[in-house]
Structures are given as structure tokens and as C-alpha cells.
Amino acid sequence: MVMEIIIAAFLVIGGVFGLVGNYGLIKLDHPMARLHAPTKATTLGVGGVLIASMIYSFAFEAEGSLHELLITLFLFITAPITANFISKAYLHRHAHEETLPEPNGDTNWAVLERPEWSPEPEKTQEG
Amino acid sequence: MSLFLIAALPFIGALLPGLMIQAGRNTCSTWTGIISLSALIGLLVHAPAVLRGEVITASVEWMPALGLNASFYLDGLGLLFGTLILGIGCLIILYARFYLSSKDPMGNFYTYLLLFQGAMVGIVLSDNILMLLVFWELTSLSSFLLIGYWKHLPEGRQGARMALTVTGMGGLGLIGGMLLLGHIAGTYELTELLEKRDLIQADPLYVPALLLILLGAFTKSAQFPFHFWLPRAMAAPTPVSAYLHSATMVKAGLFLMARLYPVMSGTTEWFWIVTLAGLITMVLGALIGIFQNDLKGLLAYSTVSHLGLITMLLGFSTEAAAIGAVFHIINHASFKASLFMTAGIVDHEAHTRDITRLGGLRHLMPITFVITAVASLSMAGIPPFNGFLSKEMMLEAAAHAQLGDNAWLIPALATLGALFSVAYSFRLLLHTWFGAERHDYPHHPHDPPFGMWLSPALLAVLVVLIGLFSQGLVGGIVQTTAASVLGNHAHPHVHLALWHGVTPALYMSGVAVLGGLVLLALYRPAHGLWHAVPRPDAKVIFDAIIDAATKLANWITDTLHDGKLTRYAAIFFLFTVLASWHAFSGGAGVTLPREPMQADIIPIIAWFALIAATGVTVYYHRHRLLALVVLGIIGVVVSLSFNYLSAPDLALTQLSVEVVTIVLLLLALNFLPEFTPKDSGNGRHVRDILIAVFVGGAVAALSYVIMLTDFAMPSIAEYHLAQSHDLAGGNNVVNVILVDFRGFDTFGEITVLGIAALIIYGVTEGLLGSKVRQKLLERKPNHPIAGDEHPMMMVVATRLLLPIALMVGVYIYLRGHNDPGGGFVAGLIVAIALLMQYMASGYDWADKRQRFPYHASIACGVMAAGITGIGAFFNNMPFLTSDFGYFQFPPLQKFELATAMGFDLGVFLAVVGAVMLTLESLSRLAYRRGDVPDEYPMDINPSRQPKNEDH
């Protein structure tokens, strides 16, 4: 009974965060701000469900399961990279150098570093 | 000698001339001659038995289910033709040795000649009519090579093409006719088929079969209206003309008619078609022949005429006529081959074949003159030469033939044909060899070396001997051959003699000789008249027909395949749906015995997602990148539904394929504009929408019906499910089907996959040096290029994931036999793992660190699968039979090893290689001018020194 309550609590937590994340995705109007919302859904939302699943397997099934940890690991690896790429793409396509803050220690933002395309074979390797 | 060996010897021997030519022209021709001669001797060994009336057979079952057996038989007809083909072949080989100049590639010539010889021997010895068809087509092909032997002459090429077109068309008809015949008779073996005369002639398909078979025979034997190709084929070297166009190939049509005579002849249709075609050909060919100035042209039309004569005799369908036909085949071959060879000698010596430029050669070339005189007198039908005897028999048969109620037309026309024949024979003799010696020959002629005139001389001797001692020399073979032509166990009475007493034929012959000489005396006015009368030119008509056919073919192709993918798709789908509708409406109607399953909420959500994604793709299809992203949703939903419907293997595969496909399409999008331009009007849109909805609806309806219907036959799935563990030691039925039950299919598929990847590699490799490459290099990106192409986070993550992904690949591979997985999915997973490195760190950086070429991976995969399959031989099992066993090595638990793992390893390697090679090939094209090879794994060095540390 206690276990069931705990599992239900985690499921509800996960569900609430999933709902909040998706609501935020609709509610927030700036792309960079929007990046925040789904992170709730992928970390806390999915995480809650995974924890519930693990507890369920230990409490009610013959063998416990730790597969969910792997799912968490992969989420932790992929979610930041996805967010990183989305923000890079946004910066590249919509941001102007003047409106951006000074890059920390470098001459320019990395995505804006590249010169305009030119047909001449010229390029310097940065870094 | 076995009949197999006789038929195979020329084909095997065809390899020799190409090798022997290295040792010189004499060695080359000697070896070719030895091949022919041994086949001839092998054939003649059977002669005594055949002449006693026996039939020699040899048979091996080849594809019994199709009725195709490698069976040969030798009866009188086969012996006669075989002897002609091989015997005259030997003489031609000798003659060609001296005829071909040192510039001509002799090895090629003898190879083609032996190929042709083998095909001809195959025709006359075949017992199975399907095999006969194969040899028939081979003669068309090899004669094409021989006619076009002088590739530098346009007439040679055109003549070869025309001959191939006409005889090839006839061959097509013959295939149809023979299949009909075999269908009627219920057998494809001639020996059985020839016994079924009444059955065949009573069948309603008899007439179509007859027409088609005669089309084949008439085109091959140059019967009117297909006679025109033979004179054009005279552009061939003379040995070819002498061999193909007098003695052998053109007689293949006659052979066919004679072969099928027992079952086809005797009907009204046979009589009218064959007799009339033969009669017209005989008269027309002889008439045109008179006015030919080219020696070989004259002989060609004379051949046409004589072939017509034999055809007409076969058409009469009487015993005497058949005997005459057989006898004339021998006689015509002897005197015509000899005449062709002497014409070749004249051409060789005087450097012209134009009769108007020749004359008076008899003193300059006395030996050749004697040979020509004997042969041409025989051709004219002058006693005591052999041509006289068979012509008498022809006239005798014609005298008794009635065309409907008309009793005089055939005898009169036959006499007219004989008259023309006398005229052109004497024109050949008198205008070329008699008259005053001239001084304006292009080259001063004299008799050729011994080897060159030996062959025609031997034939001329035969002409005389057969004429004088016909009964003794050839009576037996004519008797046996006529018996096999007439069939039905006939015992024809053959009596060959010079003098038959005063008969109608003798009068007709006399009229013909006198009339012919008178016509020749009046040659000048006749020649003027001939040229004053307009005639259709066969070549012009032929070219017009070919042009029209080409135009039609082009029109059809251009209409159906105009390069627009939409049109291909529309035609393909509409045709498929209409054909399916046709099949469906002829069926038993629809009953739906199964109950539909209850729909859960989750599939319905997935279904909505699928529909919505499809709609979005259609709506946004001009925005290519967006459409591609939405396509990804469709792929995921499809994978999930596989999983939901208990097909985890398919789901795994679909998911991996989806990833690779999206990457591939992204690479392709790199070369395309961002937006698809709108290039069709509203009307076309409406049409396309209608087609799409119609076809989609049809497919949906079909799926619905199939899913609610029981199988028409018991499904093999039950067997697979039941036997998978017992027979193959695997619990994963899908994998067991792939690597074991249908392993041969999979073997073919990985081979095809590998070939496809290699072709993509080849095509892109070809593009690298082309103008297309230049265009790609200069292309302007749609947006300014972003910096930091290879961000650190991505690079580090993919490096971390690489070993994990590889381990997953190995795991999926190993568990494949019993659980979802297997070599195919594992290959895709490993390919994706490698692909991530390319994407993260750039093509150059990753490629430099990739030491094992993907081509080799494909090759290793196919070989691993093949070797595993071959391994079954050592187990005394057929190819790809797998074996398995359970092993235990302490401290490990008991585990299973199956040979299918080796096969699956092959699948794995081939998939990895094919996927990576394809993507690599496309990536190579993606360079733009200005791109610098990626030297470092990341664009921004994380250990760099920031410029201002003040933050």
C-alpha cells in the first residue's frame, strides 16, 4: 500500500512536470525562453516516470530492473546536445552581433565566427 | 561418337582459333579444319546404322518441368544436313585460309564460323524443339557476326543488320509456333511429336502454329516476301556466302519444313501457302537473277530461286516431290557452294565481281573455268550433271500438280522458272568466261593457288559423279532422308537415273533450255525492258518500316517515360490498380470471415499522429527540410506500430533504417534548393489528387480486405513457427527465416545491397571529375554558413557513445538467433555509431581514422556468408544448410553455437559496408569551394588561451 502510494506520487510528479513542460512550450513566446520548458518534461517528467517504474519492478516483480537508469543516462547525454544545437541554430539565423552580450574571453560568438561564403579557396582554422 | 560430342565439338573448338592464330595462319586454319573434320567423322561413323533405318538418340534430362531436355537424335534427314554442314564446312575452312587477306583477323573469322557450325549442327540434331529454337537463334546471331565480318564496310554492317532483323523476326514467330505445336502435341520431343499428325492437324491451333512456323522458315530460307535480305548479305566475305547462303543457313528453313513435314504437310493451308510462296520465289528470284551484274548478286538471287523450288516441292506434299526436294538439297549445295567459291576466286584475282567488266577469262584461268562450267551447267539443268536430275524431278512433280482446279498454271510457271534459271546460268558462264579476252581488268587474273581451287574442284567432281552415278552414290541417303521427311513409317521408292524416257518433264526441260538461250540472246533488249519497268526497292521499304517502328517505339517511350517521376508514378499506380481491379472482379467476391480487433486508445493516438504527420508533409511538401522532419514522425509511428503488433525485429530494423534514411536525405537536401518551386497548374493538381486518393483508397481497401480474410491456402508461417527451434535451433523465427529457411534469398539480397552500394560509389566517383562536380563546387549556400561546425559537446558525446553503441551492436548481433535482433539490425546500429563520428567531427577527420575500406567490408560479408553456405557441403548437405549444437566450457554456462552465426556475420558486414559506402560517397560530393579539410576533431580548441582574462 505504501509502495503503491509512493509509485503513484512519482507518476503524478512526472505527469505534472510533463504537463508544465508542454504548457511552457506553448506559453513562452521567445525561442530561447522556450528552450527551458521541455527540459522540465525530459528531466523531471520522464525521470519521475522512470523512478516509478524502477520502484514498481523492485516491489512487485520477481526481478528488479535498472534499465531505467540507462534511459536516464541517454537522456542526460542527448538532451543538452539537442538544446545546444537548437540555440546555436537560433543564434546563427536570428541573432545579430550587436544585440548579443560580449563573448567571454573570445573575439566573437562561435556560430557567428565563420565569414560569409566566398568562392575563393580561403579559410583559416580557428582555435 | 556421341551426338552430344558432335554438337559440342564446334562450340568447344571455337575457342581454338583465337589461341592458334598466335602460331600462324596455317596452324589456325589446320586446327579449325581438324575440329570440323573430327565432328564430320564422328557423324559419318553413324552413317551405316542410319542408312539401315536406325535412329541414333542421346538424351539428358535438363529441365523436365519445362519440357526442356538436352536430347539429340540422328535420322536420315539429320545425317544429310549434318554431312552437308560439316563436310562443306571443312572445304570452306580450307578455302577461307587462302581467301582471307593477311589484314583480316583470321582467328575471329574461324571462331565465328565454328560457332555457326555448332549452332547448325545443333539444329539438325535436336530432338527437343525448345533446344532447336535456342540453336536457331544462335545461327541468326553467329551469322550476324559472319555477315558483318568486314566491319569497315557499311554494306556489310547494313546487310548484317537486315539479315538479323528479318531472321530474328522470323525466329520470334517460330518460337510462338513451336510452343503452340508443343502445346497441341503435349510433348516437346520431336520423336514423339512427329507421331501425332492427326491430333495436331485436327487442333484449332494448327493454323496459327503453321503460320508462325512458316514465318520462321520463310525468313530463314529467304522465301518471298522475305527474300530481300539474302542478296544484301552478300557483302559478307565469299566463304561466308558460300557456306551460309548456299549450303547451310538458308537451308535451315527448308530443314525445318522437312522436319515437321510428317505432321504439318498435306493440309490445304500447307499446300497453298508453301507451294505458292515457293513458286513465286522460284520464278521471281530467277527473273531478278538474270539482270544482276554482280556475280555474287546473281548467285544470291539464284539461291533464292532454288530455295523456292525446294519449298514448292515440299508444298506439293507428294512422295515424288519430297524425294525431289531432298535430292535437290544435295545437288544445290554442291553446285552452288562451288559457284560461290569460284566467284570469290574471280573477285580475288580480277579484283571485281562485276560481270560487265569481266569476260574472256577462260584462257586466263582455265582450272577455275572448268569448275565454273561444270557447276553452272548443273545449275542450268543440263545433262549429265546432277542439277539436271533433280530439275527433271521437279518438273515431273510440277506437271502433276494442280492449283485448285487449274492444271496448267504450276507446270507453266515451273517451266518459266527453269527457263530463267537456264538464262542466268548461261549468262554467268558466257558473259564472264567466254568472249574476247580483255585488257582492262582491274587486276590481271590468273588461276589461284592449289589450296584455293581444291574445294570448289572437289564439289565440281561431286556434281559430275552424282550426275552420272546418282543411284549408287546418293540413292541410299536420299531414300533414308525421304523416309524421315515423309515420316509415318513411309518406305519411299527412290529411283534416281539420268534417263526416264520421254516424259512431260523432258519436254518442259527442253523448252526451258531453248527458251533460256533465246532469252540470253535477246539480253540487251530484255535488259532495257527490265530497267524500264519500275520495281519496288526492298531496302527502301525495309528502311521505311524500320524507321516507322523506331519512331513508334520512341513515341511510346517518350510518352510513358518522359523523365517526370510524377508521370512514372501515375502510370505505374493506375495500371497496377486497374490490373488488380480486373483480377479482383474476376474473383469469387469478398467475404470477411474475421472479426476486426477492438481499438485501444494508444493505437488510436498513434494513428492520429500518423494521419496528422502525413497531412502536414503533404501541406508543407515544398518546404523540404520541414517535410523531412515530419517524415521522421511517420517513421517513428510505423516502428512503434510494429512493436505494438508483436514484431520487435521489424521495429528495431525500421527504427535504424529510419535514422540512416533521414541522414541520407539530409545529405541529398544539401544539394537541393530549400523550397520546391511550384511547377504544375491547378488542373494538374486536381488530377494528381484524384489519382492519389483513388490509389490510396484502393490500397486501403485491399489491406482491409486482406486483414479480415483467411488465407486462400494454408500459410507457411505455421511450419516456420513449429520447426524454427527443432530444425534451426533458434527461437527467433524472423531471424531463422532470414539466415536459414530462406538463407539463399538473404544471400542474394546482401549481394544486391553490396552491388548497389558499389554502383553508388562508382557513380559518385565518376561525378567527381565531371562538370556536375564543378557546379556543385560553385553552388552558393542558401544561408550564410555557421561557424563552429563541429561543436565540442557533440564531439565528446559521440566519442562517449561509440563504444556503447558498438557493444549494443555486438549484443544485438549475438542475441539475434533467439531474441529480437540479428546481423541486419546490428549492422545498421554499428553503421549509425560510425556515422555519428562523421557527423560530429567532419568527413575528413573521421575518414582519416577509418582504416578498413568499406568495399572490403562488403566483400568480406558476402564471402563470409558464401563460405558458411559452402561449409554445408562438408557436412554432406546442400548449400546453406545450417547446423547447430550446444556447448559448455566451464565456467561459462551452456550456450548454443550455430553456423547461421557465420552467415549472420556476413549479413552484418555487408550491411555496415553498404550503408557506410553509400553515405561516404554522397558526402564526398558535398564539398564546396572554400571548404578546408577538417584537421581537428573540433572547430574550437577547448584548451585555447582566451584573449582577455579580465572576466
From TrEMBL, chain B:
Where is each MrpA C-terminal/MbhE domain found? 684-762
Record's superkingdom? Bacteria
Query: Do you know which InterPro entries this protein is assigned to?
Result: CPA3_Na-H_Antiporter_A, MnhB, MrpA_C/MbhD, MrpA_C/MbhE, ND/Mrp_TM, Proton_antipo_N
Query: Topologically, how does it sit relative to the membrane?
Result: Multi-pass membrane protein
One Pfam family, short name please? MbhE
NADH-Ubiquinone oxidoreductase (complex I) chain 5 N-terminal domain sequence ranges:
63-107
Q: Which GO terms describe its cellular component?
A: plasma membrane
Q: Look up the record and give one Gene Ontology term from the biological process aspect.
A: monoatomic ion transport
Q: Where in the cell is it found?
A: Cell membrane; Membrane
* Biological role: NDH-1 shuttles electrons from NADH, via FMN and iron-sulfur (Fe-S) centers, to quinones in the respiratory chain. The immediate electron acceptor for the enzyme in this species is believed to be ubiquinone. Couples the redox reaction to proton translocation (for every two electrons transferred, four hydrogen ions are translocated across the cytoplasmic membrane), and thus conserves the redox energy in a proton gradient.
Q: What is this protein called?
A: Monovalent cation/H+ antiporter subunit A
Provide the alphabetized UniProt keywords.
Antiport, Cell membrane, Ion transport, Membrane, Transmembrane, Transmembrane helix, Transport
* Domain NADH:quinone oxidoreductase/Mrp antiporter transmembrane as annotated: residue spans: 126-402
Q: Where is the MrpA C-terminal/MbhD domain?
A: 609-674
According to the UniProt entry, its GO molecular function terms are:
antiporter activity
Report domain Na+/H+ antiporter MnhB subunit-related protein positions: 794-916
Q: Any stretches that span the bilayer, and where are they?
A: 6-24, 31-51, 71-95, 107-125, 162-185, 205-230, 242-264, 270-291, 367-388, 408-430, 450-469, 505-523, 568-589, 601-620, 625-645, 651-669, 689-707, 750-770, 791-814, 820-840, 852-877, 897-919
